[in-house]
Design brief:
Layout: E1 9-13, E2 19-23, H1 24-35, E3 38-39, E4 51-52, E5 58-63, H2 66-70, E6 72-79, E7 88-89, H3 92-98, E8 101-105, E9 109-114, H4 115-124, E10 130-132, E11 146-152, H5 153-159, E12 162-165
Helix pairs in contact: 3-4
Amino acid sequence: MVAGALLKSTTALSATGRAVSESILERELAVAERMGWTHLGGANKEAGWDMVAPDGSKIAIRFDELSLETGAHYLELEQRKDRESRWRPSGFGLARKAADWWVMVNSERIYVAPTKALWKSVKRDRNAEEKHSRRNVVDPDKRLYSRAHIMPLEKLAAVSILIADNGE
């Protein structure tokens, strides 16, 4: 994939019922501009981070509209292509080692958490709801090949240093 290319398109409904349909890249750019961060156009996406703060710290960002429905953030740790493939670190599984900040965005809020504090919270809850697959939004009969820690939004809020209203 070409750096800066359209990464993926999302379509969801916010809790208010209004359509949220923009490319992830467009949404990332909007958050970066609002927060005063520099977006790197996908150049470091494979390494687990997307943006840089003015102080040089690395920022990973994910959008989770289903968190409004479930009350929890799907903190992806691993993924694979199919049942026969090996599990590989992805999402937070990559970011926890490379990024300084984890940013979770839905159409209502922006959560900014230090990756080290977030990882400590995940490790404390190791035996809790962990490594679940999320349903495929496009085809609910299919499973996605990812594993994650299911983090209640209250816990995410507790480790976040900033929770901002998101006026998408």
